[in-house]
Amino acid sequence: MDSDSLRYSLDLVSGCGLTLSCEQRAALQTSLLILKRNYKFSRVLFWGKILGLRSDYFIAHGITEDEMRNRKTLYSFNCVDWHLLPPVTEAQLAEVSLLKEHFKGDPSYEYEHTETRGLDEGDEAVVEEITVSVKMTEETRLAATVFNIDREVSVVPRGAFIKTPSGRVQVNRCFEGLSESEARKLSSYLHFSEPQHLKKKTILETADLNPSIDFLDNLSEDTPKGSWSLQFERGSISVLRSLLWLGLTFFHVPMTPQHGYIYMGDGMKNHYLPFML
Amino acid sequence: MDTSEEVHYNERDLAAKSFKAFLLKSSSKTNLNLYDHLAQLLTKVMDESPEDVVETFEDMSQEVKRAGLQNTQSTLRDTTPISTATVLAEQQRALFSRKAGEDPAHEEYLVKTPLPNVPELAFYLEQAGVGLGEEEMHRVFLALKELVDTQPLQRCRFWGKILGSESNYFVAEGEFQEGGGEEDETAEEEARKSEHRVDDLEAVAEHTVNLLQKSADKSMPVVPMEDKGTGANKYTYFVCREPGMPWVRLPSVTPAQIIAARQICKFFTGRLDAPIASSPPFPGNEANYLRAQIARISASTQVSPLGFYQFAEEEGEEDEETPRYSLEENPDFEGIPVSEMAESLSTWVHHVPHILEQGRCVWVDLAEKPEELVEEEEGDEDREDEPDKPEAEVGPPLLTPVSEDAEINKTPSWTAKMSSTLVSQFAIAVLRSNLWPGAYSFAFKKKFENIYVGWGLKFTGEGYNPPAPPPTQQAYPSGPEIMEDLEVGLKEKQGVKSTLEERRAVEEEESEEAEGEEEEEEED
């Protein structure tokens, strides 16, 4: 969500219940501009809020040249002082899904979680146990959670970003918004992260795609089906809510280039989605 | 030399002309050709002289193309499709119109109305970081006004919003005036009766099935529902999809529904008549599930500052064992300083009774059989000894502080903080539930309020495990009394066979004799 149009965007997203107080919004408007200058970002986006027991984390993304790669993530407690989050490894991303406690609100808190999983090996009656122990600080957990959420449920409308022949992803200045009928279909929305399913498509399917626009995964290919809730709030604003990460809300006003997504929640994945549908 | 130059020049001229002809070739899809397009584009660049044309060249090209396309006038007129936005806007317009008979200067408005002060609520909630947007809250306010005007409510409150996968529910809580809510019930019953008349045959079939089930299933008496106005059914709830749409009243909740709702974990779809497919099966449709979740959320998360409510003094004997349920506002409540409320959880207390394991707020002893049933069962041959009287379930009494709530995963189930650390004189205290994500309460001096905005799901900590399906029913144990004894059967069959043969032989002899006599007679 762009820091320039914060108030307007928050108003559209507030159907999920959480917004920012006036004080926080005012602080964000000033501190994000300073951040932009200090780190030499081309755009600064307010990503959202992760609720912790003692205090909440406010997260922002800084974008340099390419919209998708080399994004820097920063966090703050009071919307004024920002700290850079460290980059995460694949191993950490996998480990973080084992932690099922709330965020504590203290970045130096160490999580220690050990899980024993039994493994039967074929016909043998012996059950081998594998202990998986996870040790990480809350800061790493925060970075990994933000990365996971971006990878799995970040949403942009189709056509809002284009990929130049050099491979750079940039904002499509000619994007005038989805039409009303297009905005009702889940296939008009794409994930804003490295595509996973695109490479597996057959040539027949890729023939209809426009390589400069359709370089991302489509939302309608998400499993399980039904993990997105597409609604038209107040009749005309298309709002997408993820049921996999409860708290992620995406809005788009059809026939205008306004769109954005925000995550406001406790930072825990909803593993039991198939039971709930 | 001239001829070669001329020829060379002619070739180049020819190549240029053929290339120009190529440029003038119309595209097969649209009637554009590249020559005209480039001409228009370069004219535009000349007219506008933008900066850094090279960077924005492609964008300009697209703009020129789009501007060039014109709608050819067709003889058919386009009918503008009516979008859902306009339909909703029409419905919401009714919210803003003042009804006939209302006069702003009328004195009735000075009297206390059951309508809550929603803009004030929205202001405080925004400071807490919770809200639905200013305009949306105002629409909710007007929708509540409409509800109060149509229903005879004594008190009304905006309970919150429950999100669903297809659409959401705005929930309002109301307390009827004495004897007020019954009219709707008779209307409901009549509607039900008319439905029954249509599905008579089905009803009869169902009824017989129920009777059979009841006679076989003696060990599961149904826990009776709590009466309207008491316990879990103290308030009536109304829902609507968007403010402006008509309010639908939710049915009262039964203990069986609460017990089933505790075991399942399902998203709401947004349609009140949607079936709930779950294991164990939920008795009812989405309207009942919604009502059950609302009851659970209210019982767990409706809190108030310590001292706001006090127990009403009851006349007569005060039995220490029976829990007290009647609350009234404390006129001497002074308000607790915000910093204290944000620091300690013991300054917040529950003011809605806890729902017991049984599914009710007031425990009912099922072992006491009413007289009718006792008479029927005396005729039974097998009569088991009466089981021991089960212990009365007791929940935490009303007005227990929130600090005594059970912890989940070693974290307290509530988080309290101040809304602002920069300006603490005017900050408010905010309480957030970790058990039911989405439940918020705030308190500021003498004001407080609770709201729920969320998915209607409880936080389960380790995870949700659906209960295992019940074991398969045992077949009747096989024993000698039902098994066919093969030997005896065989003998019996053989006996029958032999008697039949004998009879047949006798008949044949008789018939032969008869024939023989006839022959003799004929001979004679």
Automatic annotation (TrEMBL), chain A:
It holds the Pfam family Radial_spoke. Its main location: other. The keyword Cytoplasm applies. It is found in: Cell projection, Kinocilium; Cytoplasm, Cytoskeleton, Flagellum axoneme. It comes from the Eukaryota. Belongs to the flagellar radial spoke RSP9 family. This is Radial spoke head protein 9 homolog. It comes from Scleropages formosus. The lineage of its organism: Eukaryota, Metazoa, Chordata, Craniata, Vertebrata. The gene is RSPH9.
UniProtKB/TrEMBL annotation, chain B:
Keywords: Cell projection, Cilium, Cytoplasm, Cytoskeleton. It comes from the Eukaryota. It is found in: Cytoplasm, Cytoskeleton, Cilium axoneme. GO terms for biological process: axoneme assembly; cilium movement involved in cell motility. This is Radial spoke head component 4A. Residues 492-506 have a biased composition (Basic and acidic residues). It comes from Scleropages formosus. Pfam families: Radial_spoke. InterPro entries: Radial_spoke. Residues 373-388, 507-524 have a biased composition (Acidic residues). Residues 176-196, 372-403, 492-524 are annotated as: Disordered. GO terms for cellular component: radial spoke.
